[in-house]
TrEMBL record:
Organism this protein belongs to: Halogeometricum borinquense
Entry protein name: Sugar phosphate isomerase/epimerase
Keywords: Isomerase
Tagged with keyword Transmembrane helix: no
Tagged with keyword ATP-binding: no
């Protein structure tokens, strides 16, 4: 059964420090978190140990991994993190086959360095990766050119872009350890809170069971800056437990 986490960016506007936010997450039925920033690493490590929260991975910018690889990886590995995710690449990287291949080369190089340390690299999509070049999504071209890189498929952004999220999961299941469960509104082409959009939750549950995906991760960028977001994550993701 998949473990359930919340991407902490969903509560990034809270004034509390990360350790305090983790305490609140631990009071819910969520199994863990996915990080995107770090403060007071020792406090966070202690809080994770005390609350028994799991860690799905961490979002780290590609430039940080390229320019400060050892420092970046060492800091996050203090928390037992072995899964690194590049959360964003500018749309300019998806304009042509050449720009996509160049991005793939950069990602593959980092993936190789992480692999030497027993860690893995994944790429998280938004909507701009679903432009088409020669009847193929840019994301598909990236995946073809960077086979060493896992995919953290964001279902909401994929659906908002007009792609079929569940088909993508089935196509890349062997490269998906982390799945962002975000809903979407087909009419507006924008993400939505889980359970309030057009995402086929039953279908998601089915493919997760079929392909034994390790982590389902709640994320909602437009969430209010209150702990209601954590509660909603726990309640809405209980569908998959």
């Amino acid at each position: 059964m998949a473990q359930i986490a919340i991407q902490l960016y969903s509560v990034h506007e809270l004034d509390d420090d990360t350790a305090t936010i983790l305490e609140h997450v631990a009071e819910t039925d969520l199994d863990g978190v996915e990080f995107f920033r770090l403060d007071e690493a020792d406090d966070i490590a202690d809080t994770l140990d005390r609350t028994d929260l799991g860690v799905a991975g961490v979002h780290v910018g590609l430039e940080s991994l390229e320019d400060n690889f050892a420092e970046t990886v060492d800091v996050w590995s203090q928390l037992g993190i072995e899964t690194f995710v590049v959360p964003w690449a500018d749309p300019k990287h998806f304009e042509t086959h050449e720009t996509i291949e160049a991005l793939a080369e950069r990602l593959s190089a980092i993936a190789a360095k992480l692999d030497q340390r027993g860690y893995s690299l994944h790429y998280h999509n938004h909507d701009h990766e679903f432009v088409t070049l020669d009847d193929e999504y840019a994301l598909e071209i990236l995946a073809e050119n960077a086979p060493e890189v896992g995919l953290e498929l964001d279902l909401g952004w994929a659906g908002a872009a007009g792609a079929e999220p569940l088909s993508l999961v089935e196509s890349y299941a062997d490269r998906i350890d982390l799945l962002h469960v975000k809903d979407y509104d087909t009419e507006t082409g924008s993400p939505a809170k889980v359970g309030e959009g057009d995402l086929d939750l039953a279908g998601v549950a089915s493919v997760v069971r079929e392909y034994d995906i390790e982590w389902l991760i709640y994320e909602y960028e437009d969430a209010p800056d209150t702990y209601e977001t954590v509660e909603h994550a726990s309640e809405s993701m209980s569908y998959f437990q």
